[in-house]
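Project channel, design review

CF: Before we commit to the Dioscorea zingiberensis constructs, I'd like one complete example in the thread so the newer folks can see what an input/output pair looks like. Taking Mitochondrial adenine nucleotide transporter ADNT1.
RD: sounds good, go ahead.
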Amino acid sequence: MASEDVVGKSTGESAVTTIVNLAEEAKLARENVKAPQYAIGSVLRSLIAGGVAGGVSRTAVAPLERLKILLQVQNPHNIKYNGTMQGLKYIWRTEGFTGLFKGNGTNCARIVPNSAVKFFSYERASSGILWLYRQQTGNEDAQLTPVLRLGAGACAGIIAMSATYPMDMVRGRITVQTEKSPYQYSGMFHALRTVFREEGFRALYKGWLPSVIGVIPYVGLNFAVYESLKDWMLQTNPYGVVNNGELSVVTRLACGAAAGTVGQTVAYPLDVIRRRMQMVGWNHAASVITGQGMSKAPLEYSGMIDAFRKTVRNEGFRALYKGLVPNSVKVVPSIAIAFVSYEAVKDILGADMRISD
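CF: and here is what came back for Mitochondrial adenine nucleotide transporter ADNT1:
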């Protein structure tokens, strides 16, 4: 009888234990289901905030962005745009207010996917590189070095640029066309269809190679310089810029401006070559780059090296930095507006992750 009581008690305890275990497993399963949903929602809200901020900041500096591209590709034998202020006044006089924002819709249309892919890729790449670095060094507390941040930023930039390159390519063409162009692209999708139909799929990726090479120093240096400057300031606190363990908005803007200036200066020649290669095969731009002498036939480039060689030979080394001034002028306000817009949208959406994290 006692034996039966022991068996029954043991069986009952076993059943209770099983029920408790099942309950705990169910709870863990529910938590495991909810956690990714919360994480995904948080990432999406942050990326939406970044996309809106990017669109607002790009729109604010759209006139300078368009002038930069026009300076990059204009015919050296028929100079129309001879500086920042003169160029903006010329666009206003010949095309009106809307001419200052031509191509901006296409530019903004690629901001959200580009930002989404770039920052998600940077997060994944930096996490993976940090894990490998800690495994190699055996130091679980190791942090990313500037070189490793450069690598993570380069990976993110290449992936994001490749994913949205066709939109960037047609944006360049829409930006360059004027009311006098014999042929008009009515919008981004019309331009994509037209280029694909008349020039083939490969035409959508003209200038891709210099873009890949250029994005390594540009995006990579942006991340590396920005985050390294922040870390250095937090550790050294020069001029008392750190308050309660945080950098002020002005200090963050200065870090971002420095990062953007370094990145764009190093990568700018490749951006010029990319734009020029994008115009190959399209003779209806506002200004068509031609060779020297009497020949007015548009230049053809067999590749990136050939484009570099012909540009320097026909126009000199300074041609590789055409449009750098308006591009530099727009860096600081673009970063400032993007930062303020992102913070505002982040608060509205309740996003709890910063783009730079």
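RD: helpful, thanks. The chain is about 70% helix and 0% strand.
CF: The first strand starts at residue 242 and ends at 243.
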